[in-house]
Amino acid sequence: MAFELPALPYEKNALEPHISAETLEYHYGKHHQAYVSKLNELTLGTADEDKSLEEIIQSASGAMFNQAAQVWNHTFYWHCLSPQGGGEPKGALGDAIKAAFGSFEQFKEAFNAKAVSNFGSGWTWLIKTSDGGVDISNTDDADCPIAHGQTPLLTIDVWEHAYYIDYRNARPKYLDAVWNVINWDFIAQNFND
Amino acid sequence: MAHQLPTLPYAYDALEPHIDALTMEIHHSRHHQTYVNNLNAALEGTDLESLPVETLMGEIERVPEAKRQAVINNGGGHANHSLFWTVMSPQGGGKAKGDLASAIESELGGDEAFREAFTQAAVKRFGSGWAWLSVTPAKRLVVENTLNQDSPLMHGNTPILGLDVWEHAYYLKYQNKRPEYIKAFFEVVDWDEVARRYAEATA
Asked: Which residues in chain A have Cβ-Cβ distances shorter than 8 Å to B149?
């Protein structure tokens, strides 16, 4: 059964003015679609055709890994964003963030600094640590925490295609804007699972 | 003396319509400038500040380990972009001539095979990086690609033609269509400059 591009959980213009409809036209409609299409080309007629995305990510390497992980990463990223997003996390997740970083503001600063330092193409993540806390990490290119047995809670895409139309070379401006649309309900659900 | 942003050898709009003026302006005045600034910051307080950037990249193990990755990223960024601007020209395009054309013929199977190999090297570079035509220490031509801002000089090759395939190099005009950008690049390649670099690398 072929892999499919999952539906975007909101309209393409829903995240404006923070992320433009034009960006989502390309990012979801072209980039994410291309990863799905290439994954189907690579898996067609192979034993991987009937595997789940997660199984491929945990077993594949090279081009197959890149396509599968990019399909997964983008789906996860779309769900980390919401037109009703923004604000601060509450409950157990909010407490874990404060315990790890001191305050929500300090967490954001640490996350932004990590994302700015991610050289080239990649992703910046909030992950759940084995002791039930939280930490920030970077991955390169398509790499993804579930390939390393980690539990991702939140991701921000820092490939240039995620922000170049809206912010050009100014990755920090994109990062500042994206906090306005972070879907803390989804991230709390990931934390509580 | 600190490293400086080189002047572009043509106007920002000179490579239109193949590479647009806005892309050139941001690419040169923002991206390249940032690499220069960060390189100078990384080298501050070392005894490597006066080395030409090409020498620095070729002798990268001389950089203290704590600063090496920053120098690879930003020294590479400075060296790669400095080469990139010079191998394009509004009078560019066409094919290589002379000794370089002969070498492309005998070592890479001719112009068409070279273009195909170079295009594949550029398309297949996943994420950010560069495609190159380089000269090996044995003075043979090779098509290769590198990740992020890694320079062929780091493994002993001398780049003579380079194509930036970071998304910032083409996203405003070509968005996700990297193959169209690669095709457009060949319309502005300054083969005289590539031949000059080939002669220098094989001398």
From this structure: 119-120
Reported as type and span, the H/E element at residue B105 is helix B98-108
Residue A173 in contact with residue A167, Cβ under 8 Å?
Answer: yes
Closest approach of A26 to chain B, Cα-based (Å)? 7
User: Which residues from A are below 8 Å from B128, CB to CB?
Assistant: 120-121, 160
Nearest CA in chain A to B173: A165
Per domain, the residue ranges of chain B are 21-87, 98-202
Verdict on whether the full-model pTM lies above 0.90: yes
Residues A61, A64: Cα–Cα separation, whole Å: 6
What sign for the dihedral angle of Cα B46, B49, B55, B57? positive
As a whole number of angstroms, the distance between CA B132 and CA B165 comes to: 11
CATH of B98-202, picked from 3.30.70.1050, 3.55.40.20, 3.30.390.50, 3.30.300.30, is 3.55.40.20
What are A19-29's pLDDT values in tens digits?
999 999 999 99
